[in-house]
Automatic annotation (TrEMBL):
Its EC number is 2.3.1.274. The gene is plsX. It catalyses: a fatty acyl-[ACP] + phosphate = an acyl phosphate + holo-[ACP]. It holds the Pfam family FA_synthesis. This is Phosphate acyltransferase. It comes from Paenibacillus polygoni. Belongs to the PlsX family. Homodimer. Probably interacts with PlsY. NCBIfam families: plsX. The keyword Lipid biosynthesis applies. One of its GO terms (molecular function) is phosphate:acyl-[acyl carrier protein] acyltransferase activity. Its main location: cytoplasm. It is found in: Cytoplasm.
């Protein structure tokens, strides 16, 4: 299999992208990895012993976080993200990974890679950590700010298939994000979406409140991109604040520093549970080929885990399985 990485996307590019690609290439020698980006910028991070399964595809332009997505994708034809998307569309790659501008990646997915037949709105589907270590796939968490009930139904079906195919959950529990658990709760979107989800060939468990998601209440959480992105940022912010407070308390005196030293293994384990880098990235479900969005501040480990995630999805024919379920073909 061949996986392309947008080497210039993300806050820590190209260093993190290149270092992560090197780690992945050394671990999975049966996978060809292509770094797409400025050869001059990439070269210093490659080192002297480049694995044979790691190559570089030059791209002279970069889409930044400040660029307007549609304009950037249309005008910057030689941007690393666009070139990677074009390689995916033309069949010279099996998957694409980028930590770059989310809006631009979504636009690249729609305009360059192309939507899956039968899908109206692709969805961004990251994993949210849960206390049972299983995690919860949530979609959409920011690809589309507005959604129709039919879109939520497609999200539910795609999310269920993803957890089955990529993460081996035989009968994923699918929940609908809402302000209460009763079927009649919510706004017009969730009220209309609820019966649509009930009719799908999935294990729909009903409405789920935001306060319960970290407890592992469901395996797949469905919501519109506006509410979902607020949810994601709230969880990330809360986790960051908790660890900042713990650090402040554990460094306030000699006694607490000694206590911290004794608890350090447990604290590292707790931090690991809430670390997005361990999950690699979020697939853009609903595109005709596999596109994985890594976090904007992804480090080398996150990029490597995104490659692992892409490999599993390819091996389990994720895109083909979703397409078959949606179209019946």
């Amino acid at each position: 299999m061949r996986i392309v990485i947008d080497a210039m996307g993300g806050d820590n590019a190209p260093a993190a992208s290149v270092e992560g690609a090197l780690l992945a290439a050394k671990e999975w020698k049966d996978t060809e990895i292509v770094l797409v980006g400025d050869e001059t910028a990439i070269a210093p991070y490659l080192g002297n012993e480049r694995p044979q399964n790691l190559t570089v595809q030059h791209a002279s332009e970069v889409i930044t976080s400040d660029d307007e997505p549609v304009r950037a994708v249309r005008r910057k034809k030689d941007a690393s993200m666009v070139v990677a998307g074009r390689m995916l569309r033309e069949g010279s790659a099996d998957a694409m990974i980028s930590a770059g501008n989310t809006g631009a990646l979504m636009t690249t997915g729609l305009l360059v890679v192309g939507r899956m037949h039968g899908i109206e709105r692709p969805a961004l589907a990251p994993m949210i950590p849960t206390i049972d270590d299983k995690g919860m796939l949530a979609l959409d968490l920011g690809a589309n700010m507005d959604a129709k009930p039919e879109h939520l139904a497609q999200y539910a079906l795609m999310g269920s298939i993803y957890r089955q195919k990529v993460q081996g959950i035989e009968r994923p529990r699918v929940g609908l994000l809402n302000v209460g658990t009763e079927p009649g709760k919510g706004n017009e979107l969730t009220k209309v979406a609820y019966p649509l989800l009930e009719k799908l060939p999935i294990h729909f468990i009903g409405n789920v409140e935001a306060r319960d998601i970290l407890m592992g209440t469901c395996d797949v959480l469905v919501c519109d991109g506006f509410a979902g992105n607020i949810l994601l940022k709230s969880v990330e912010g809360a986790a960051g604040a908790i660890f900042a407070l713990l650090k402040e308390q554990f460094t306030s005196s000699l006694k607490t520093k000694l206590a911290a030293a004794m608890l350090m293994p447990e604290l590292r384990s707790l931090k690991g549970k809430l670390d997005y880098k361990e999950h690699g990235g979020a697939p853009l479900l609903g595109l005709s080929r596999l596109v994985v969005k890594s976090h904007g501040s992804a480090d080398a480990n996150a990029i490597k885990n995104a490659v692992r995630q892409a490999r599993i999805a390819i091996e389990n024919q994720l895109v083909e399985s979703i397409s078959k379920e949606i179209t019946g073909k």
